[in-house]
Amino acid sequence: MQKNWKRILWNITLDLVLTGIALCVFALFHHVLPREQESVGIVIARPTATATESAVKAETEETKNSVPATTDRAKPAETTKPEPTESTRKTIDARPESEKNSYNGSGRGRARTRQTTGNSEKGGSALSDVSGDAETAADSLPMSEKFADKYTETVTETANSYTSPNVSVTVTQKTTSDGRCTYYLADIYLKDITSLRAALANDTYGSGYRAEITDMAALNNALLAVNGDYYGNTTEGVVIRNGVIYRANETDCDVCVIYYDGTMRVIPGSDFSVEDAIEDGAWQAWTFGPALLDSDGNAIARFDSTRRLVSANPRTAIGYYEPGHYCLVVVDGRGESEGMTMQELSQLFASLGCTAAYNLDGGNSSVMVWNGMVVNEPSGGGRASSDAILITEVTE
Hints:
The chain is of the alpha+beta class. 20% of the residues lie in helices and 23% in strands.
């Protein structure tokens, strides 16, 4: 009888060991080892430009042709770029605290008006309808005609800004008025949406491919880079990068789409349509979320997700004002800076005046690269990711 019990225990132990080995092998091949994924492979054509847009583009080309010969970033010789130093990390915003953003992280500001649903690993959906879908008179203007005062005839760079005939970026380190949280705000103006690009690790669509944000920025000659949605960690949802549909699977997460005309919409995953994406001219699409503002641009009252996801953490998010004007935010956390809750992040974008905003991968992934340097303090030193969001000079 005793021998039988020993044999049974031995068999159970052996089964557990073999099962553990099998699970490790499965995880290794499906989540760790790089492997290409099957891609939808549909290229979304840029909608035909209107006569007005064509005239503006011709005028822009004439201006560009009159600019002196350029260097790596197609930059004219006349620049005011200082030599980068380690102090850039700490001095990216030298203004006194009284002049910094007044958001205090306490939930004050615009009223939080929307109750939400959704409970998935990526935050589910915070919408019951489409966010950022309101049309305004200003939206009738092509983005190439807007914000003329934001650009310069030649490239001008400072420690925290870059302007050219096509791009304007200013990066500012900010601290909430209660001193609890540090975040980095990149205010972005673009004449052409193709300056907002995406990079894939190893330039390959698939699982297990990872690269440092600094490396993806350098390889693509980016002015600014942040982490994306870490699409390679799942097979769920929508992946559109630089006008190519790689994946369009079902998801209960919100999907953020940026179109060739510069508009950005956050759509419940159940409402996403490949046919609409093609017809409307989608340029980028990410699946993470949730949406951070409701369809009226108000902060969201409550996020029905896990406590771990909604509690204070490092964050990366993208905001939208109108076609041609965007922002990227990276929040430090799990250190001297406590990070932001999802509600605080939502309130921040409402206080900035964004009309739509979207949460991207966070935690150790939250990294901002400016002028080739990591300017924030990533949790755990940061981590490599499957993709990045880049701001570049026009490449087409």
